[in-house]
Amino acid sequence: MLTANQKFQAMIRQANSASAQLKYQVLNFLSLFKTMVPE
Q: What is the pLDDT of residue 4?
């Protein structure tokens, strides 16, 4: 049985990995956008 603290930490880990994936997708999009738009 998980304690409330362990559940909370698991939720934080899931949120952190989700935000990391989101940042990665945004960075990919920005680099793609730069290649499409001439300086």
A: 92
SS (H, E, C) 1-39: CCCHHHHHHHHHHHHHHHHHHHHHHHHHHHHHHHHHCCC
| Tokens 């960075």, located at residue | 27
- Token representation of residue 2: 């998980």
Beta strands in the chain (DSSP E): none
Q: Is the pTM of this model over 0.70?
A: no
**The tokens of 36 are what?**
């499409």
Q: What's the angle, vertex CA 10, arms to CA 23 and CA 16, rounded to 5?
A: 10
